[in-house]
């Protein structure tokens, strides 16, 4: 059992104070207490009990008030949402009036943003000719299709190698043989200019280099 001087919990302290007061009254002579001392001790016990009850009641009232507020908040938002739908469906209600009501304007067709050229195209290969291509979206959304093209010499026309919605692509080519890559983005039938090409070939040490064409 904790000592009364060490109790922190309000409920436990309230009980301990009442007990302290009762024991003091019953043993006033043995404890050397005079009436004024007993009055002080009783006030400490009853005073805390009174204020604890007041605080408990206030807390319960506050919790109830918060619950009532949250319930009304949901109801009020529901009413506003209903009328917002009605107002925005009326073509006779101007966007200016909707703005005064702090509502979005009437629905308008979304604007199409053309795809942008992918950036930072990087191509790396190992000695077996396994090539990994990576690039940055440059603001293109996830549904954008990236078209990967290649050519086997600087004078050859570009040929489509494949497409992907990712920002990476894998390919295999004969080690040491010239090959160049570039990537473009397309969405809803509109394509971006192609990226700056990269060229791969093997060095004497068998390592793969890349240069911008």
Report on this model:
It is a single chain. With 213 residues, the chain is α+β, with helices and mostly antiparallel strands. It contains four helices and nine strands, in the order H-H-H-H-E-E-E-E-E-E-E-E-E. It has helices at residues 10-26, 28-31, 35-89, 95-100; strands at 119-125, 130-136, 145-151, 159-164, 168-172, 179-187, 190-191, 198-202, 208-212. The strands form two sheets. Strands 3, 4, 6, 7, 8 and 9 form a six-stranded antiparallel sheet that branches. Strand 6 and strand 7 (190-191) form a beta hairpin. Helix 1 runs antiparallel to helix 3.
Count the strands? 9
Mind telling me the C-alpha Rg?
A: 40 Å
Q: Which secondary-structure class do the elements indicate?
A: alpha+beta
Ends apart, CA distance between termini: 84 Å
Tally the helices: what do you get? 4
Helix-strand sequence: HHHHEEEEEEEEE
Strand portion: 15-25%
Q: In percent, how helical is the residue content?
A: 25-40%
Overall average pLDDT:
89
Shape: elongated
Largest sheet: number of strands, sense, barrel closure: 6 strands, antiparallel
Q: Stretches where pLDDT falls below 50 for ≥5 residues?
A: 202-213
């Amino acid at each position: 059992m904790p000592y009364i001087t060490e109790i922190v919990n309000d409920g436990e302290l309230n009980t301990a104070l009442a007990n302290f007061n009762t024991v003091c009254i019953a043993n006033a002579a043995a404890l050397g207490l005079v009436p004024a001392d007993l009055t002080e001790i009783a006030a400490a016990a009853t005073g805390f009990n009174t204020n604890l009850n007041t605080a408990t009641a206030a807390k319960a009232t506050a919790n109830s008030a918060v619950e009532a507020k949250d319930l009304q908040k949901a109801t009020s938002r529901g009413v506003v949402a209903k009328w917002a739908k009605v107002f925005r469906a009326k073509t006779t209600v101007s966007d200016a009036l909707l703005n005064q009501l702090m509502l979005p304007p009437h629905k308008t067709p979304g604007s199409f943003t053309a795809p942008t050229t992918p950036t930072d195209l990087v191509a790396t290969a190992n000695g077996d000719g396994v090539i990994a291509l990576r690039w940055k979206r440059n603001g293109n959304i996830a549904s954008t299709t990236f078209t990967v093209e290649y050519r086997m010499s600087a004078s050859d026309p570009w040929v489509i190698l494949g497409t992907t919605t990712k920002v990476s692509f894998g390919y295999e080519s004969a080690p040491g043989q010239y090959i160049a890559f570039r990537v473009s983005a397309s969405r809803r039938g509109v394509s971006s200019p192609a990226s700056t090409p990269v060229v791969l070939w093997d060095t004497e040490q068998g390592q793969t280099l890349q240069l911008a064409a």
